[in-house]
Amino acid sequence: MPQPPAQLAVETQPRSRYDAIDIVRLIRASHGDILDHYPNVLYCSHHTTAGYLDQRLATWLLHRREGLDPFFERFQRRFPRDAGYRHDDMRMRSELTHEQRLREPPNGDAHLTFIGSGLQNCVTYRHRSDVPVYLLDLDGMYNGVARTRTSSVVAFTSERKVVELDVEVPVSRRAIDSVNLYDSRLGLRQRIDKLLAEHPMTCGRLDITVPKDEDGAAVTVNEYETLLMRHDLAEVLRDPVRFVARQGRRMLRDPRAVPAKSLGYARYDVVQVVNRLLDLLGSSGDLLEGAVARLMAIPAARRLRFKQSLSLAVGNGGGHGSRVVRGRYQTPILIQWRATPRRHRSLRLTLSRFD
Fold this sequence. Notes:
Elements: E1 6-12, E2 19-22, H1 23-31, E3 40-45, E4 50-51, H2 55-60, H3 65-78, H4 98-103, H5 108-117, E5 122-126, E6 134-137, E7 141-142, E8 145-146, E9 149-156, E10 159-170, E11 177-180, H6 188-198, E12 203-209, E13 217-222, H7 226-230, H8 245-253, H9 258-261, H10 271-281, H11 286-302, E14 309-316, E15 322-325, E16 331-336, E17 344-354
């Protein structure tokens, strides 16, 4: 008879701002060979700037720092630190108190690297005792102080699908959009809570997948902070050639000059500029929006590792039924870089139980 799943909590502290920490080694040091009794292990980070690679990519990178470090350096060059991200301008972070603004690390680059590199908050591995599993921390130290990172780990024998259903999520007509899937107005979170209440379990996984026929969209788990999602995420959706804010302000002052000149610029820098221009131009902006969408779609598809699915760990809610296991700022997000005429996107929810 298979033994029940083993559930562990692992805390780590990085040695530098970017670090790769072998979680398997830490578990072996504190719990012995417990993982070796199971063929499958789920690893779940509770953070938005520290996560895991899917096993196929980790294997391609040889499960070694010699492969991991150059891979992430590529994205760190694309999203350099202290590059003027709106997320890092604490004066604009109205949701923070004065004391929080003093403590908050400027880490827009880490969030964008997480999303663009395809890091995930939750992954499931076929366990191999001789292979490390790395927590990749992109923002592990601030002002010389290491941040404590928490991962939930579940070792299990098998999984079985409990239920699968398709849902629709409304999106704007904009080519570039991001949707907080836990926004209460969508009703998706309430639907997930109801699903978990109807199918209680000690531990399992909820997968949210973008079907193959949904072109130009992806999902991730990250912090849905307005400046990060509505401004800085545009860096993820385009080739990193900046369209400076000064030119954006000039176009807003003279929107009629845009259609004749817009194709002379490499890319737009911010979602806000594009959307405001389209509002000002009305129907005459249709060609402009199409051109922007085509320009942005190419690098998003070819140069970044957007994911078509995300996973959320499911655990026992302590007398309150099953619940999604997630960190304080973790939010499932739908990213769109190509408009859909239907004004909604289809997503598939798959709930699985671990045995």
